## 1
Amino acid sequence: MRYLPKSNAERREMLDSLGLATLEDLFAHLPDEVRLKRPLDLAPGISEYEIIDYFRARAAENDGGFASFLGAGAYYHYRPVIIDAIVQRGEFLTAYTPYQPEISQGTLTAIFEFQTMLCQLTGMDVCNASMYDGSTALPEAVMMACRVTGRTRAVVARSVHPEYREVHRTYARYQGLPVVEAPWNRETGLVDLPALEALVDDQTAAVVVQSPNFFGCVEPVREAARIAHARGALLVVMFTEAVSLGLLEPPADADIVAGELQSFAISPSYGGPYVGVMAAKEKYIRQMPGRLVGQTTDAGGQRAYCLTLATREQHIRRERATSNICTNQALIALMATVFMSVYGKQGLRELAEQNLAKAHYLAAQLEKLVEKRGARLRFSGPFFNEFVVDCGGRDPAEINRRLLGDKIIGGLELGRFEPDLSGCLLLCATETARRETMDRLVNRF
Amino acid sequence: MIRKVRSHINQDEPLLVERSSPGKKGYQLPPLDVPAVDPRAALGPDNVRDEIAGFPEVSEVEVIRHYTRLSTWNYAIDLGVYPLGSCTMKYNPRVNEFVARLDGLALAHPYQPEAVAQGAMRIQVELERALAEITGMPAVTLQPAAGAHGELTGILLIRALLESRGNPRRKVLIPDSAHGTNPATAAIAGYQVESIPSNAEGMIDLGELDRRVDDSVAALMVTNPNTLGVFERDITLAARLLHERGAMLYMDGANMNALVGIARPGDFGVDVMHLNLHKTFSTPHGGGGPGGGPVAVTREFEPFLPLPRIAGDGLLRYDYDRPQSIGRVRAFYGNFGVLVRALAYILAHGGDGLRNATLDAVLNANYVRRGLEGCYEVPYAAPSLHECVLSDKRQAALGVRTGDIAKRLIDYGFHPYTVSFPLIVHGALMIEPTETEDKRELDLFIDALRSIAEEVRDNPETVRTAPHNTRVRRVDEVAAARKPVVRWKPAAS
């Protein structure tokens, strides 16, 4: 086996030093009844060449060279080449969690920069070193709000990504944390503020909205904050499309901002690995879950970084920890950090403006079909790079099938999540959408 | 004597923002092929931000240099052994990185139609089958994103099954040698945690278990081999005792690298367990993640597994119609890219290769133990599997602690072992070399720790003030926590 770096002569020498005859003797103390007495029923090991063949064959079963207009929590953005050049350096790729700061300053410095840039983007004071993904960051944010307020109830806008809400329900259900959902306004596609206000009470720990929301619309964060704060609840603002942060007013009225950074040059990769993040107001730092990197000095007085406030975490606090999270998404967070570094202050803005322009072009072209085919924008709320189209009584699945025949993966059929929107598609156009392809989609729509 | 390393020049580097200058660019976008849109008109003036204060503006070459310089400040498995106990830091095969980046996999969207996602689904089915065979447990979910997430999924599964039988019960028992994630997970799953003391050999105390398991106990969470690297000899008896009283046996698979091909948890009574793909199955740690935490279960738990499940024989499809499911634990289907890498590792080894890896892993741990037992105390005599635990008892008598020895190891060119864990060993040195270390590296490691033991006798101050040869000296972690500075801010003007 090419990954095992020992000759049989060396094994023999090592066994001799242990006074053992064979490798099997190392297991002689195991009770007989637990031993597996046959070989594992797995095919024999194969060469690198064959491994690549196997995965190329699987890849070919997915890949038809399609143009795609899917978004809904996983977005197609251009990935600058240097991102992989950096994250494939063994010193980043194969390093452990930086618990030993003297030989981990590379990872620690990069995470400190990640935390800094996320604070600047979100308008928050502090940010952790990452969460598994956006969907798990939602229940973690709500649990944090429960610790801060000493309350248990969450009011979640139904315009939050449905799979995020499902994950939240799984976490909440077994802890006995009540969750109620606030409807979206049928005209605007935004959270229904009067309904939200009516649902928030003195037992509410968190009000959760997502902006841009699942339908692509920019939510009224300030009004949601006013409603939450009026009853002493925290406002949690989620995001799934991080590129929007380059253009949208940061949700500085929130108490916790959590979301998904897949848009920052993380491959869609069939749903993961991505990188979640959580940022908050400084006063809540000791209630945050996950790892945090802090600045300090070494014995010689130089600037240095280390993991900090570990007394929040499971390896110190055990059952009283703020979360059970241990592993995070450091390497993916590094990808996002390099992405933010490459685009920088101007680039992120310009990138976001291109997304806005592409999606608004596609929407405008589709709107021209109103008279001919009855298609129209479903919602009036302002949108960033995705939007909901009402197919005018035609079957969205049928439209998608027709597009697929033309090598276009169309929009997400919303009926699977929202029965009221069963005649609708969620379409996304990022900077990677070409005008010619968008025109083709519109023609076949 | 330090034999593995010598010092060389490495570059200083400021924070990226400290290199920033207005107007520098590291990107170029193609010209917009559609009409530009005025953000204020499209989004409303209140919804558009001002410039991002403090965000960097740098060129591409500065980005490359910045991160390359930072990278040289890290230790990594590609540089040498990572002897962290229960962390299984093994070689990360590069072909795994290559295949995970194939367009058809990396560019697959989680919502693309099933008809054009069959390859991604088949990879999952194949990995589930392999992990089921390795664990001896018939059903596997790949959704959890990491070990602790797998634990949570597993304990929720136990809760759901017990609830379906009328009573979820109140308590989860956890040995005092367990990882911190175990009690933290049980608490998040809504259980009271009861710690049970290990016996004189560091193992599960059957008598203690017998006294504690009643109808309030939902499960026992064990790591096997435990965090001493010792196989829990009475595991089948423990399983029987739990099952007779309607409780479940949960296994933390962090130490599965000791068992693959040798013993299967499903054969010794485990009901639910998680695996760490970033440990046993070689996916890279990446400085702290991503990981993968698949959960394997016995048949009776299958209806409760997270949504969705893959169904079908020829054409695969997702099954969402599972009324007893605990629900989703993560959006989409898990850390798919990590699953690809783990399957590549399994394919490379095959059944025999996986077993051979286990043999070498256990050989390496025992070889290190033998090499060090003359200099360091062995607190428990039981035979080691894939890791060994020593203590600083002799060195502590001279005023040097395990944490100091660990820092001195850095000067010798090694990453430290796991310090002060498991908690049942005072002053623990917990060492797991893994199978991907050659004899030369192990000999150098043993020599280094022996040499440090001599230094403790002859020149303890050198050890107490280590490391001496790193670019930063011992880092003041206490000051960092006292007044946390967790982001850069411009100097007050």
## 2
Amino acid sequence: MDAVTEQTQDPRDDAAVGDEGIVEELLVEEVSIDGMCGVY
Amino acid sequence: MIAPFDAAQRYRLSPQVALRPEPFGALVYHFGNRRLCFLKVPELVDIVRGLGAHSSARDAVSGLPEKRRNAFLRALASLAAAEVIVPDVTGSAGQP
Amino acid sequence: MTPAPGALSAGRPRERVPPLVEQFKGGLAAPICLTWEWTYACNLSCVHCLSSSGRRDPLELSTAEIMAVVDELAAMQVFYVNVGGGEPTVRPDFWELLDYAVANRVGVKFSTNGLRIDREGARRLARTGYVDVQVSLDGATREVNDAVRGRGSFDMALRAMRNLADAGFGEFKISVVLTRHNVAQLDDFAALADRLGAVLRITRLRPSGRGADVWESLHPTAQQQREVYLWLLGHGERVLTGDSFFHLNALGETPLPGLNLCGAGRVVCLIDPVGDVYACPFAIHEAILAGNVRSLGGFAGVWRDSPLFARLRIPAAGGACASCPAFSACQGGCMAAKFFTGLPLDGPDPECVRGHGEAALSLASRLEPPRPGKDHSHRGRAVTLGMPSLRVPAKPCDSSPLAAAR
């Protein structure tokens, strides 16, 4: 089985400055399937 | 191994992915690589679901205001990197 | 996650995408994942068992009832279930239920002490898709492990792990509950995982179930908590935590990986062997029972309509912690840890890294810690592994989980 992947830091996810100098916001966020407290 | 995102390519939702709508967007889980992604706006959910019906990713976002398209293409690129969306080489439309 | 302030044209409205964490606090349409204990029966008697397991409960869900809940989870698109117990493989229908879940696209990770992971079991698992295995181990040496889990348990776990590795299972999990006596073995655990091609997972000890009896002597010291935080930062890429150490985020600027919030009743929950639904597996107590899957609305109805869950999904003010500068990092810690040490839920965690929990615990006025009404612990001597003949059932519901299958 593949390892559970940790949260990525894909540089393409970073908020980037758009054409009009506005900081765009993340529309996708990734969370580890093991990253939720309350599951032993 | 995973081809870099190409906005001129047609994409579709991977068959190994479960997409679960939520009030504010959707949760997307890839059963193969076990990655969990959160689509944070409903418009992105619609675009992801409708990808296969467009000839390219760029075409899929063309209905958005121009100033939003880059952010959505960046979102699609991150989903492609996670293999949530995959190149649709068959050219067959129809999203689940 | 919160966007940095950027250059804005005057008068242009901002399209605001709330941080993920804020959206999760209000609860989701279905759990993302949940813990499901399939039996209270267990061949072991670990001293810190969060579910006080040992003896099967006479009212445990039947094969058909478990399958019906699987059907519900599939319809709700719960992505995966952490199956535990007790020892889930003790159920004679374990393999059948496992196959049923994965066939219905409900991913399963199951926690085990290794009981049924012989060579054939390991091979069977290696060929089954959408299954992950988590073997419990609380010491990198036999001495440290068996002091908590019982004589023979270390050997049984290692045998299971070797069988999984030999069968080509891939990256199974080794899950360690951190205690005062195994913090010093973190590097050894990591090396063991590497040797076996496994992934190390370390989780927090809570004063739940039998854990309440040993918490004072077993929970890590304040100094050890600092060591753990630093160690996790150094090994974060390769070690999982189930987000169970978010209370340690107050120790530094760098948050540990994970959502960093209590998921109970909002993102996760527990289904116990008799179908009772709780906010999380560390919160088994009748006062915080959300409902039962046997009721008219099934599990979905409980998740959706339980008054307890509705209360948890209302954003809570920080209470006594709100004025603490660390609050945004630690979120006030673990609800279950507070509940079972008798601390108020809107105050500090008993292991608050700033010492507020210790101060609260020393107050004479605090409540007597609640004890759950349900206790399925083995009676009399601790069970010795591999010797079922020593156990003479006094009542049918005490029957050994190792007795002949029905």
